[in-house]
Write a structure and sequence with these properties.
354 residues; alpha+beta; Molybdopterin biosynthesis moea protein, domain 2; Hypothetical protein af1432; 3 domains; five-stranded antiparallel beta sheet; three-stranded antiparallel beta sheet
Length: 354
């Protein structure tokens, strides 16, 4: 199975996973042949990509740390609570905490120890899906840094609520297709403080979680916002959420730009770890987030095309790949696998949008 852009579907593929509508009802079931009619339906619903099973990806498992039901319900809960604040000036923190407990339970009991998935989301639910993804990333990395359970929960709550202040940012700014002008960007930069002000009314939320919301756009060299403080004033858990936030934002399609590849973003974050980001947090992040997620199509240094079949969890930059096409573009009569951890003469040159 592999993730495929809606725009690249040819009408011959079969869905690898169920596709759900905004209310959690199944829109299309796994195994459905994605005809042109269904492609149009998915585009209308705002889907950017889906999981498909085809001859290239047959048998490849793409396991999520969260059950699909948990991920979907978490997005819905965040959406509901954000809207509740706009309507009633209140957020039910107990419901948020229950949601966080479920996410933590599933991650901590998962056999997967790496983040190795392309989250399937619609354009309209970006903020809510992003909030859940940042929480999943932060808990995954934090748990393997041996952060204790109380701190881990504070991390998770701060991460899932880090963008709550965006409920005050006008839709036309959040979804502007071009670059924000100075006035728009100045307004956008208010969202951490606006989010902090909401949560500051909630005694159940600890100072550390509130700090994450307030300071997740601060940078180690003092060039961030809204306070422009330097490293000594930025909590360790906030530094981790900053890395997770940037990764998920940059690997997501936005109205003003296409998503970057996972390995490109990880390289960029590594570069920033000498100036803006905490090096320890970036190094920890790199150990548990796959730069080449399973199901991604890659070109090898010998010109052959392959699909990432399995992760080497102790060397994420060198997964096991299934080769299916030669350097001239000819399909192979039979595919074969290469463990890049063992065969050091072969490496990945680039990932391909196929």
């Amino acid at each position: 199975m592999r993730a495929m852009s809606i725009d690249r579907l040819k009408g011959e593929e079969k869905l690898g996973k169920n596709v759900y509508d905004d209310h959690g009802s199944i829109l299309l079931t796994a195994g459905t042949k994605v005809s042109d009619k269904y492609v149009d339906k998915l585009k209308l619903k705002g889907y950017i990509q889906v999981y498909v099973e085809d001859e290239v990806s047959g048998g490849i498992e793409v396991d999520d740390m969260l059950r699909e039901k948990t991920r979907r319900q978490s997005r819905q809960e965040i959406k509901q609570q954000f809207n509740n604040y706009l309507d009633k000036k209140d957020i039910d923190i107990e419901r948020i905490m229950k949601c966080v407990d479920q996410i933590m339970d599933e991650i901590l009991s998962s056999k997967e120890i790496i983040f190795n998935i392309n989250d399937i989301r619609t354009k309209d639910e970006y903020t809510y899906a992003h909030s859940v993804n940042v929480c999943v990333l932060a808990v995954t990395v934090g748990a393997h840094m041996n952060i204790n359970m109380n701190r881990l929960k504070e991390l998770a709550i701060g991460a899932i609520l880090h963008d709550v202040g965006k409920i005050f940012v006008p839709h036309e700014i959040l979804n502007k297709a071009g670059k924000l002008n100075d006035a728009e960007f100045d307004f956008m930069k208010k969202h951490p403080k606006l989010g902090y002000d909401i949560l500051n009314q909630k005694p159940q939320i600890t100072p550390i979680s509130k700090n994450i919301v307030l300071m997740h756009h601060e940078k180690m060299n003092g060039t961030g916002y809204p306070l422009a403080v330097e490293s000594a004033q930025i909590h360790q858990l906030t530094r981790l959420v900053t890395v997770c936030d940037m990764y998920d934002a940059m690997t997501s399609d936005r109205p003003y730009r296409k998503a970057m590849k996972a390995y490109e973003v990880i390289e960029y974050l590594t570069h920033l770890s000498t100036t803006e980001l905490d090096r320890e947090m970036v190094d920890a992040f790199r150990r548990f987030v796959a730069p080449y997620p399973s199901g991604v199509i890659v070109r090898l240094n010998n010109g052959h095309k392959a699909i990432v079949a399995l992760q080497n969890k102790d060397m994420l930059t060198r997964p096991i790949v299934r080769v299916y096409e030669d350097e001239k573009g000819n399909k192979l009569m039979s595919t074969y696998e290469i463990d890049l951890k063992k065969n050091l003469t072969i490496f990945i040159n680039e990932t391909l949008d196929e």
